[in-house]
Design goal:
One of its GO terms (biological process) is cell-cell signaling. The protein is mainly alpha-helical and about 220 residues long. Helices cover about 70% and strands about 5% of the residues.
């Protein structure tokens, strides 16, 4: 697939992000999207063809591969990238709605178009919560599906139609495990960035609301 849409989507949201949000976009672009396209996709390209079992029983190899790899690492990674970027659409839709209102009323309803405030702030906070939730869900999913963040060299399979326990060998296990660790590390970094931005925005606008109330009391 073409990743241009995802790039344009994140770039459009970038001008409404805080400094932490811009770091998150850079991490997604450089350490996740580019790594996926340039390197990781090629490593898992022929994973089924390179999965070998020491038996010629028809169907045994396919059943064993499906058992140990119910979903391909690389496809799950692609789905994760799409899902964690999708909440940004909420911000895009909200901005489009705001611009449409301004056009309809033929006047500027917001002093600073790039400022996160009011309803846009709520939408932005919801998108951060959803992104953090998706990241966490996919990390748990990776862990549950593959019994941890590791790629074994040898797996033993005794599922029918295999006549007995057979040894199956996974291609390039070390290389795949390195990229899997890299995936987990970047996901954890993105979770930390999302939580940091969420805390920063809540703290910033809590202080802002408190100062407004205090100034009104003083007046």
């Amino acid at each position: 697939m073409s990743w241009g849409f995802l790039r344009d989507l994140l770039s459009g949201v970038n001008k409404y992000s805080t400094g932490i949000g811009r770091i998150w976009v850079a991490v997604v672009f450089v350490f996740r999207l580019l790594v996926y396209i340039v390197a990781a996709e090629n490593i898992w390209k022929y994973e089924h063809d390179e999965f070998e079992c020491n038996i010629k029983q028809p169907g045994c190899e396919n059943v064993c591969f499906d058992h140990f790899f119910p979903v391909s690492h690389i496809r799950l990674w692609a789905l994760q990238l799409i899902m964690v970027s999708t909440p940004s659409l909420l911000v895009v839709f909200h901005v489009a709605y705001r611009e449409n209102r301004e056009k309809h009323h033929n006047q500027k309803l917001h002093k600073s178009p790039g400022e996160i405030d009011g309803g846009l702030l709520c939408t932005y906070l919801i998108s951060l919560i959803l992104k953090t939730g998706f990241e966490t869900v996919f990390l748990v999913l990776f862990y549950k599906l593959y019994n941890g963040f590791k790629v074994p060299r040898l797996v033993k399979c005794d599922i029918r139609p295999c006549p007995n326990t057979v040894d199956c060998y996974i291609s390039k296990p070390t290389e795949k495990m390195i990229f899997l660790y890299f995936l987990v590390a970047t996901s954890c970094l993105c979770i930390v960035l999302n939580l940091s931005e969420l805390s920063y925005l809540i703290f910033k606008y809590s202080i802002k609301c408190y100062l407004k109330r205090y100034s009104k009391k003083c007046q």
